[in-house]
Recover the amino acids of this structure.
């Protein structure tokens, strides 16, 4: 029942890098096999207006408003090219968007910023992390997001925009850009917390009743912590660059928000590093726990064997058919035999007690 | 009896980050469940005056005096907002105060400094560290402290203020700010010392009589040292920044005090790092100690078995009912049998002695 | 069957550094024994022309065209010297080209750039990495490449040049220089991916059925990951220098391409580092898996022995020939014997069940 | 006999930090319990004069001469205060002198330099390091040294001063300051060398005859190396600062001497780090050595058991009283029995030989 | 036979630092005991002249020629002082030359450069590294070299000078200085290669037939790699300083040579680091290999015991003399007995096969 979710996941590994034999800058999808339809959404708003439509309507883009274009699916190259030509995106950037094995990074182009980030959500059923690459592009009036597939962690942001909760409707696209990144980071906290709880349970399991697959679970934890680490370390760097580079696209009052996001990254990193150490310690506890059990079994065997082996030898002697064994003529021979057995038995028992083996 | 305090603590893990789905800057409590009343205290003093009242009396704030407002409990958002608006605190800062899973840090705002710090006290009964997040705000005339709950390590400071011990009454709010941080650091020393003593005991236990849970205790120690490390490393950074940034809020003659606090941080860090190494070494000692015990038991088993197995075989032979066994006709057959047994016994004993297995 | 490819390869270790006793700058081949003929190829192109010939035709070099001279085999010192004198290459550089144990590096000379790089291809049959040192020299109009032997990963580039695929025909020699490096990096991805898959299989093998050579396979993986690491770490540095040094030989529009290559290096480095950690974890899983199996066997032995040893002793007693054993006169003695055996048997079984050893 | 010196020392841990509840800058002794009298010594010299007196005679301080005041014992606060007021020392500095759990450090005050350093001498009898904190204060004309107790490593310096050996009498107080530090560093070399020799012996012991406490000895070594490391790493930093800060108190011609001391620090650090690695390797050797011994014992048990178990069964069969056992009627049954035993015996022996278990 | 060369060498540890109680700058020999005669050699050359004499002839020093003075043996302080006064060498430098436990370093004095370096040659017979400290002093016209004893790796350089091979005769003393360092570095390659081959053999030995001393060999390898590391790391630093400091003593055209030497240092460092990792992995392979062997032995014991223990019990029963055992009256009792034995035997065998223990 518990077994299946212990198999180490492989789905994150793309089957083949089909673009290896392509010229650089060729836009070709690299990632898990996907054939589904690409869906998209256009959300336009300012302090007074709001509209939300399915599909990408690039012609509705208006200045002095926030234009959010969201694409779910980057395996359809045509859409990438359409958006790329509208916003004059570099062809190497489009290649990066289509390659979902990317490392998180920030790139500053004259009039837009490109942010690659890993959206991670915790799958409690399989104790796995679902990872999706999100590419965000910030221009003066628009935010364009590319996801690998439908479903994301941005529902609360859509809700805040629609219902004017918080300050989001009164500020510009850089704040939306921040809010999306912030929401992704917030979900890292949830993933880290879940791994922490699993770690606690595993520690208890190993202490109370070590299982054959306990260390495999620890190995799986290690992989998940590595996965988080590979998502969050470069993100910290990215946000640090967003803070340092003085891009006109990010207003100065948004800086405090990115500083806050930066703090959160460090907090997650420290927790991940702690968990890695605790996880590594499980191995020692496991070996200790298993060897303790082994020792107890060995002790019983030793004691049983050590006590009965000489007794059995004694019984063997008086089962011999040799002639003229004097003990055969003794009157209380049988009683003496039992007395001898008792003496041997209690001497050995005492010896083991004295050695503290019992 | 000893068992309960070996369970690894979990209380520091907040149940859920309820602010995940809130807009950034929303002040919402994140931490252990707390519902109790929030208590507070206002201490006002200068060289000649002193007053101490329960409750927050922001209207009594006077220039050229030190005004210390202390709040025990950050789950009551209303109080945070009241103080925040009086001192014009940034809403992201208030969010940080209410989030007690914060990493220690210093933030410089124009006319105030924010210091987040972990107050740690050692709980001898459960061999645990009680941790409480303290937020300090230093303005020109006031220090505001926010704690998670009632009880702290500041009693000696209150006493020094009330009874004019030391120089505290003659100096400004920056010195109070320092004195509070200093007192927290002093208690780190106590925690480190206690862990060191526990480490000594554990080392002895493992050498003399390794227990099933010895390595679990080491794992618990590791967690405690990690906890201290996560409190003290960022604090060192913070104090370093307090020394480097030339804020007008901190007078130059207070610098020597912060330098002293900085030295203490490094001293604690080095001790913690040493203890981590010593703690890691316990594992090897444990395995060695356990395998030594195991080996001794195995030796006894081996010697008993190896000696009696051939003897028992010999006895078995003369218990056979086969016809015409020549030994059956020998006169001193039984004596010869015992001589043979003796020869086998002492040969094997000699062999083991020679092999140094005995 | 699987065994042979587990032997750790040694062929990468040159037999002897014959140049140790030579004056510095003496060009002498250092590497695997090679005696075969050196082959070469000259490809010349611009937007409108294309020619490809076997052999090196240095006299055909023309300005304002891209001239690619490729040499397969650096053990023929004469060819090195001929090219060296044509392009005025430093004699220490020629020594480096002939020494195939070189570390990847970039060197800037006034009018040419020297890039040493390791070309790696994955050999699936032996689970090995085939490594070949490639030296690239970029001048204003030419790229000269030196390989150790025939065969490379540049076929797709030759194809792109011949068939004008991509932008390669319309740009200068710096782009060809980049394209060759890019193709080598692309093949690192393939190698890393294959090692990742092998790692997954090994993890399964260790969990399900640990083999004698499982850890040897892990050790071999470790060596391969080390090999990749030694190729890719210095390459990252190299590309970083290519980006920073503002050489006139590399046009500014090619910078974006090198930045992309740089990103790929970091991506490979991170994957390699992750795999190294996962690989290291296999050892713990192995020990756990093996000790689990051992424990199960020990338990069976313990239980069999512990149960039958007292029973055998009992049977031994009633095989004795001592006189006046009262049990011999009892009517249902044999039945009582079996009842006693049953009681002992089930008591011990219950004891083991209670101890959770069964 | 060997046992006592293996107990890990605890005396370096102060019983309680009594100054925790004191205001900062309160001078209170922190260290091992000490109640003895404080002794002191005043040595005054220049190229032509020399005087040496017991006790501190601050009034005899003369310019253009070197005045060395040495205090053995810092638990007498009165003396600290007397000297402190004479030389106008900062009260936080006096607090540091009285706190012997200090980390080595250098502090530059306008007209004096404070150097805290650990004086370490090797105690061969207990294989321990005796550590004493020495505080040095360098002023233009004086060097003041504070030790924890009587006895130091400065005898050769006193001798050189008294007998005008070397250049010490012809130079100023900065050279005395250097000479004292140099002598302390020289004794680190002795300690490191002794630990190295102990390491060699331990390596031999573990290989030839691993003991129960062998790994405890390695753990003790680890603690000693950690202790040295905590003394020498900050000292290197200190000397580096002495070289970099261009204090008027240290003449330029003394720089070469401090550079030499700096080199020695690095040399000690490298040796300590090497020894730490070698020490860590002892653990593997120990486990290997112990498991080798265990294996040999197991082999004997296995062979004895495996050979005699079937033989004993055979003997058991012909001890049965079942009717009509055909072998009972055979003429040479007993000879056949021995032949069968021989066949079994030699077959199994051959099997073990073939398996290379014998 | 193999055994002796596994003993860990100790000869590199000097018996006592006799200079500990000397004033700084006192020239006193620190190193292995040496009493032999000090030999020396003077080689003078320029493009047209060459002379070579035994002994040091400082008066023959001529400008515009390269003067190489080589001293074998630094335990004769008189020679050091004679050369020191001729070239005005600092007394701390002379102290360093006489102290052969020095760390490699470069020191720039106004008109000469001091280079300390470890000359290492591989001793194949004992699988040891012979290490000798070489001090080089470069002045405008001369190179002075101090070795610990007779014999070095400079024969090929003497040969090149004598026979005008390479460019050495046409260039100045800085090139000789380089050539000597280069030759020492070249011999590091040989040492590293030999350790690599030993590592391969050891890996095979551990896999095929792990020995008691296999891990000791790995420990010895570790020590040798540490020794190399301590020689090469500071040397890389040194050469880097030679390149950066713009000393007039080193001509600009020699820079390319030092850059080449620097590359070689890095190459050696990387190989050493790889070997350290591979060497560390041997431990896991060893434990795995040994536990595999142990498991196989345990399995045989388990199977033999588990099968024969119940059979022996069965035989014991029918050897009892209890009255009225019904089986005694059965006609084919003996045949039934053998059938029962067969059933037990094959059931257990089947069970073990099913469990995959056989
Ligand atoms: Mg490509
Ligand atoms: Mg890319
Ligand atoms: Mg999605
Ligand atoms: Mg957030
Ligand atoms: Mg937890
Ligand atoms: Mg903030
Ligand atoms: Mg939020
Ligand atoms: Mg925050
Ligand atoms: Mg509190
Ligand atoms: Mg303090
Ligand atoms: Mg302690
Ligand atoms: Mg201080
Ligand atoms: Mg050479
Ligand atoms: Mg080279
Ligand atoms: Mg090739
Ligand atoms: Mg590419
Ligand atoms: Mg994988
Ligand atoms: Mg790019
Ligand atoms: Mg074991
Ligand atoms: Mg205090
Ligand atoms: Mg202090
Ligand atoms: Mg003293
Ligand atoms: Mg010295
Ligand atoms: Mg040694
Ligand atoms: Mg020096
Ligand atoms: Mg000295
Ligand atoms: Mg020196
Ligand atoms: Mg020599
Ligand atoms: Mg060379
Ligand atoms: Mg090799
Ligand atoms: Mg070069």
């Amino acid at each position: 029942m518990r077994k299946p979710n212990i198999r180490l996941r492989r789905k994150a590994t793309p089957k083949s890098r089909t673009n290896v034999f392509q010229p650089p800058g060729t836009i070709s999808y690299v990632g898990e096999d996907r054939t589904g339809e690409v869906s998209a959404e256009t959300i336009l708003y300012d302090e007074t207006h709001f509209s939300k439509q399915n599909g990408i309507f690039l012609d509705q883009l208006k200045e002095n408003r926030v234009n959010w274009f969201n694409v779910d699916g980057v395996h359809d190259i045509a859409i990438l090219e359409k958006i790329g030509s509208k916003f004059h995106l570099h062809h190497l950037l489009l290649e990066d968007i289509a390659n979902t094995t990317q490392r998180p990074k920030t790139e500053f182009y004259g009039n837009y910023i490109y942010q690659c980030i890993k959206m991670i959500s915790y799958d409690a059923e399989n104790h796995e992390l679902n990872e999706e690459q999100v590419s965000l592009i910030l221009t003066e009036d628009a935010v364009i997001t590319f996801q690998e597939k439908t479903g994301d962690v941005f529902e609360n942001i859509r809700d805040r925009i629609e219902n004017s909760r918080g300050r989001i409707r009164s500020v510009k696209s850089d704040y939306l850009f921040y809010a999306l990144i912030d929401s992704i980071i917030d979900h890292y906290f949830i993933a880290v917390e879940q791994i922490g709880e699993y770690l606690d349970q595993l520690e208890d399991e190993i202490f109370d009743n070590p299982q054959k697959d306990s260390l495999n679970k620890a190995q799986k934890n290690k992989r998940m912590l590595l996965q988080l680490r590979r998502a969050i370390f470069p993100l910290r760097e990215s946000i640090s660059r967003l803070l340092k580079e003085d891009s006109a696209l990010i207003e100065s009052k948004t800086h405090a928000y990115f500083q806050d996001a930066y703090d959160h990254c460090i907090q997650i990193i420290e927790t991940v590093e702690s968990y890695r150490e605790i996880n590594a310690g499980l191995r020692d506890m496991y070996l200790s726990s298993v060897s303790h059990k082994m020792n107890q079994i060995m002790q019983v065997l030793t004691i049983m064997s050590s006590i009965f082996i000489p007794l059995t030898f004694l019984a063997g002697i008086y089962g011999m058919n040799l002639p003229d064994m004097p003990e055969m003529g003794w009157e209380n021979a049988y009683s003496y035999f039992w007395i001898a057995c008792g003496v041997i038995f209690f001497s050995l028992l005492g010896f083991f007690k004295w050695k503290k083996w019992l």
